[in-house]
Amino acid sequence: MTLALEPSEPSVLRPLLRLAVPIVLANLLQTGYQITDAFWVGRLGAAAVAAVSVSFPVTFLMIALGGGLAVAGATLTAQYAGARDQAMVDHVAAQTMIMVVGTSVVLGSVGVALAPLILKAIGVAPEVYAEALGFLRVSFVGLIFVFAFAMFQALMRGVGRAVAPLVIVAGTVVLNFALDPLLIFGWGPVPAFGVMGAALATLGTQGLATLAAIVLLWRGTYGIRVTPAGLKPDLAYIRRAFRLGFPASIELSARAVGLIVLSFLVTSFGTVTLAAYGIGANVLQVVTIPALGLSTAAAALVGQSIGAGQVERAARTTRLAGALGFMVLTLVGIAAAAAAPAIVGFFVSGDPAVVAEGGRFIRIMAPAWGFIALQLTVVSTFRAAGTMVAAMVLALVSQWVLQFPLAYVLSRPQVLGTAGLWWSFPVTNVLTALAAIGWYLRGDWTTMRLTGTVPAGTAQVIVEAITEDGLPRV
């Protein structure tokens, strides 16, 4: 097994792109929340940008703790879709909804209560604390909507229906663009909420997105139907989903805790460095969207192919997605490195120190972005196959064996100083990608199937459906 493209590779190109394009567009639009927030909050100054920057890893941790359940639901949905088992597709969706909503309520409540302690533990500067607390608490309240809509997106992608989330996200991003300046700066009877206004705008629009998602699932409009009977807890399935999703939660949490620990380190360098880090992280989030879309689409097709007994097709999908993602992100990284000061200046035009430091961050990390695409694709394949432990181990190694130790050592004054923080990113990305490819080549993931025996004739039906229509229909 190799990562080289084969003559038959184009047979998976059309379905991959047909699924990836709406996913990429939806992710770009959803990133519009962060871009819009960053743009308007940046007009409040470096302290406001730092408040959002320090809050993001904490919120991400809470999302990661429950994120494994959505990953498990998406994996099982894709494999049951591949096996053409509509009853189980619907059942998985309903049970995933129960687990995700319940988990989000618990984690959100804990987050609201512990927010002051979390920020004090991180050691945020006094001028950042008040704004960060308001932003963080509103973000925790909105976790239920973040979880629910993320679940909807994962389920839709699992059955190859990525257009519905795209339409919903497009509408809410436009609304968020209008609400952000209104709630941040105030107008007429609407008071100025400052940084917290960005979180309030996101809370309202994501609530509307979640409502639309629930209506579509209830009506069964796009291949999945949730009924009142399906919402009765199935303890056997819930135990199975927790076992499958637990390593995924550990994986996502390891990445989130790694970001928090890195934030501790970055915070010690002062507000300018923290603001530069926040802007660089936003840029990284945007530019990785094409690779993330390809890897997510690949995961859906890999899961469907494995469910249909077509392991070789799953392997070809992974190779193609990885190669495309690597080429695209490498080219984007080179362009971003060349335009780094202008990119940072878009977010904080009035602070030359932040522009200079943020520009240095982007110039250092951007050329290695292609390796992020390789890592995302391989890890998505592991998840789609149900090999969650591999993805978990790679995340633990990436964050705790590589990135944080490297950032700590390289950032010492006698080594590279602040630049050492930034150099930890490309070094970690390259080494983690190579480790992921090595694990992929072992082939362990090809032995996984979560749906049992494939009914006779199903494999050929799925292959024809994917090849002719671009998406499997369930």
Automatic annotation (TrEMBL):
InterPro entries in UniProt: MATE_fam (IPR002528), MdtK-like (IPR048279), Membrane_Transporter-Flippase (IPR052031)
Q: Which GO terms describe its cellular component?
A: plasma membrane
One Pfam entry for this protein is MatE
Q: Which UniProt keywords apply?
A: Cell membrane, Membrane, Transmembrane, Transmembrane helix, Transport
Topology relative to the membrane? Multi-pass membrane protein
Q: Where in the cell is it found?
A: Cell inner membrane
Superkingdom of the source species: Bacteria
MF term (GO), any: antiporter activity
- Membrane spanning residue stretches: 47-76, 97-122, 134-155, 162-187, 193-218, 256-277, 283-302, 323-349, 361-382, 389-410, 422-441
Chief subcellular location: membrane
Q: What is this protein called?
A: MATE family efflux transporter
* Protein's organism: Lichenibacterium minor
